[in-house]
Specification:
- This protein has about 200 residues and is an alpha/beta fold.
- About 40% of the residues lie in helices and about 10% in strands.
- It has six helices and five strands.
- The chain has helices spanning about 5-35, 90-105, 130-140, 145-155, 160-165, 185-195, and strands spanning about 75-80, 115-120, 155-160, 180, 200.
- It has a five-stranded parallel sheet with strand order 4-3-2-1-5, with helices on both faces.
- Helix 2 links the parallel strand 1 and strand 2.
- The termini are far apart.
Length: about 200
């Protein structure tokens, strides 16, 4: 390679490297433009059905509005297979189930008309552990149990895949009693889809 080519390569590399190092500061400046001096009313966010979880900002819009189309079954099976975020905070998939429940309720669908089933499997299994077992594994109380309890109060059925329980070398009795055992998440989802449930992977 000729000396001039080395100079060009070095200049390009220096330019790219300098900009990569400055990327976090640039992102802070860009995101700051969207959040600068942003104030929200006290009631901007709400949790109308699942108290304290799955906060929503409800906007009454006509397009695809839940509860306005005659004959809808309001049947959904949610599959949660990931453990995202901080283990000391509720599983984000369960939070999303709470958000959907809040949105349906805010749109005018009574809770007794919602047929929601949650199927927990794979890496999300620890969310369903009893408090004692969760504390043994992670050193803190299970932050998901209050959310699971609130979902159940709203009529949402939370289930666990016993195949995933076995694959994680857990005992069935280590799962919290609020959670329903199923032979597998795959068969649960397939069975409910054949019964007309919509499927949401969270």
């Amino acid at each position: 390679m000729r000396p001039a080519a080395y100079i060009v390569v070095a200049a390009v590399a220096g330019f790219i490297g300098g900009n990569v190092l400055q990327f976090p500061q640039l992102m802070d400046k860009v995101s700051g433009k969207f959040t600068e001096n942003k104030t929200e009313p006290a009631d901007f966010w709400s949790t109308p059905a699942i108290e304290g979880f799955g906060k929503i900002h409800y906007v009454d819009t006509p397009a695809f509005k839940t509860g306005t189309v005659a004959g809808l079954s309001n049947k959904i099976v949610f599959q949660i297979n990931r453990s995202e975020g901080d283990i000391r905070r509720p599983n984000l998939g369960l939070e999303r189930v709470a958000r959907v429940t809040n949105l349906y309720y805010a749109a005018g669908v009574p809770l007794d008309q919602l047929k929601f089933v949650v199927s927990i499997n794979s890496d999300a299994v620890p969310a369903a552990l009893s408090n004692d077992q969760f504390r043994k594994a992670y050193g803190v109380d299970n932050p998901n149990l209050k959310l699971i309890g609130e979902l159940k109060k709203a009529g949402v059925q939370v289930s666990i895949c016993d195949q995933s329980v076995a694959f994680h070398h857990l005992e069935r009795e280590w799962i919290d009693p609020m959670v329903t055992h199923t032979i597998s998440s795959g068969t649960t989802v397939a069975t409910l889809q054949n019964e007309g449930y919509a499927f949401l992977m969270l």
